[in-house]
Amino acid sequence: MRRLSTVIVALVSLCLAACGDETQGPANVERGAMGKADQTGSCTGFCGTQSADGCWCDSECSLYGDCCADRDQECKGGPAPGCSVSGPIDALCGTICDTGYQVVGGQTMCTCCAPTFCGGIAGLPCPAGFTCKLDGSYPDAGGKCVVKGPTPCPPVLCQLYCENGFELDENGCAICKCKQPACPPVMCELYCEDGFELDANGCEICKCKQPERQVASGMCVKNSFESCSSDADCVAGGCGGELCYNPAFGGGVSTCECVQPSGVSCGCVNGTCAWWN
After folding, report:
1. Phi, psi (5° rounding) for residue 118?
2. Is the distance from CB of 261 to CB of 243 less than 8 angstroms?
3. SS3 for 249?
4. Model confidence pTM above 0.90
5. Sign (positive or negative) of CA dihedral 155, 159, 162, 166
6. How many CB atoms lie under 10 A from the CB of residue 208?
7. pLDDT one-digit tens code per residue, 210-239
8. Biggest alpha carbon distance in the chain?
9. Selection from 154, 180, 152 nearest residue 166 by Cα
10. Rounded to an integer, what distance in angstroms lies between the CA atom of residue 177 and that of residue 76?
C-alpha cells in the first residue's frame, strides 16, 4: 500500500512538471516584436504558450508584439486587449495619450491606456511602438512605456473647409486656419525697380509697386498735414500755389512770399496732405 502511494505521488509530480501553467510561456525566453513574416505561424494547439512556429499565443503577446497571425481566432475567441500608438481616425478623441489608446475587441478607443511598468531590475521591455520613459537616471531605474517619437497631434476641431489644408503650429500640428495657396509665378513684361504689387493673398501681380513717398520740405514748401485717404483729396493752393491741403477742411490760406514749388508733388502721404518726392 505504501509503495502504491509513493508511485501515485511520483506520477502527480511528473505531470505537474510536464504540464506547467498553460497561460504562461517558458521562462527565460527573450520576447520582442516580430516581423510580419515571422507572425504567420498558427496557435492551433498552442494557446497560452509559444507556437512551434516561434510566434506566441499567450495573453502577453500583444504587449511584446510577437502574436501568431491567428492568435485572436484560435485563443479566447477574440482579440487580446492592448494599446495603439494612435487614436481612431474617424473619432474626435480630443485627448492625447502618451501611454497609447486602449484597443478593446479589435477597436481602438478614445481611452488612454494605464501606464505599463518598464525597466527596473528585470529590465522589462516595452511593446512595439513604445519606449521606456524612466523615472530617474540611476541604475535599474524603472518607468512607464510611452509612445515613441514626438507626442501625437490632437485632432483639429474645426468647421472650416480648407482646399489647401490647414496651417501648422510650432509643433507641426494642424490648427483651425486655412493654409495659403502657393503663389504662381508672375507672367509680366514690366520691369519694376521697386518690385511688384501684392494681391489679397500676398502674391505678386503684374503691377509695379509705388516707391515709398518722402515728405518734402523747404522754404517754399507748405504742408497742411490735413487728413486724407487718397491723392484726390489733396490739392495745391494758397496765395502762390505753394500750399498742399485738403479743401474738405477749408483752409487754403497762406502767405504770398512763395510760388508753387517744382520737383515735388502734392498728394496723400501716410494719411495727410503734403508735398512729396
Report:
1. -145, 170
2. no
3. helix
4. no
5. negative
6. 15
7. 778 889 888 889 999 999 998 999 999 988
8. 144
9. 180
10. 47
